[in-house]
Amino acid sequence: MEISGIISAILIGIIIGVLGRLVVPGRQRIGILWTILVGIVAALIGSAIAAGIGVQDTKGVDWIEWLIQIGLAAVGVAALDRAKAHR
Length: 87
What we know:
Elements: H1 3-23, H2 32-53, H3 63-85
């Protein structure tokens, strides 16, 4: 992965984190920085999964990759919220 790929993954990760948070119902007790970090991790892992199944580079918008990333972000936000709730 090149530096431009890492920078774009971070920028996309911010968007993915916010979208993942919107998918999770109810109020989350985590801050926006945690949401962004979860989004960045979800974007990186989602890109790796998409590359592994061969849907990373398609013509037009990579909808499947985006759905994988948003789904991972939603799971991450929900898991982090649950972990913080039990503290």
